[in-house]
Amino acid sequence: MQHRTGRYAALAALLCLGLAACQTLPPPSTLPQSQQQALEQRGSDGSFEGAFDTAQTFERFNDPRAIAYYERAAAATPWTFHNTRAEQALGRIWISCTLRHADSPHINPAPVLRTSWRRGERWSLAAANHGNPYAFHDLAEAYRERGDARRALRWELRGMVYQRYASSSSGLPGAIAATGDAVHPLVARIQRRAAAGDADAQVDLGALLEKGVGLPRDPARALQLYQRAGEQGNVFGQYFAGLLLGRSAPGVDKDTGAAAHWFARAEAQHFYMAAPSYWKKAVEPPFFIFSE
User: The CATH number of the domain where 167 resides is what?
Assistant: First the structure.
């Protein structure tokens, strides 16, 4: 009888261990309790800096409480370009399902995060649509990994226009040269969507034409498409129309006044790179310094 009781107790203990292993509780923090409390107090003071610093500290210790504080930082007021840093961090976490230091052997083991592509996409899009250029890269990479060539190309093109990359067809796998007789199927699809009034596709087509990717270069036509998308409220149509007017290009005369109009519309949508302190630098002629 005692032998049977002991066996039942052992089985119960194993069952409890199994249940505990299935849970995804946050790992114990190596921060002293007093420091954790001080950190959480600072993270709850209503400021962006307090919430963001707290989030980064928790993330350094692989503590999933970082997510809640990044969300506080993203929602902090008054809104500034700093908010996009929290939005981009949340997109990165949910798309990758890991915290930044997940592979470090010197701190807590990384928590198990449930996959949430939609949540990660939503945060990354928020950061990108508020002007965070790092989110452009994150989205291009994420869509490429999911096999969504059209959306991956969209964010590659937006980064290309923003960064003034030279004309290139590298974003089109197996792209047909602009001088060829046929149009790449991906470009043809963008053309159809743009003709149907899709504002994002109009921006995509404008970027292809501005840079001469997959189509003959035509900045004047690109400007028309950007403006058409901008009139529908598309923030990238507004911002890229401003850039093209401010920088000028073959067939597009420099018009700083018209550019300022488009930038103001984009800034009203919290697109921080459309603020005068940013766009006035963005439209300056590029220059290069060569050292011996």
Answer: 1.25.40.10
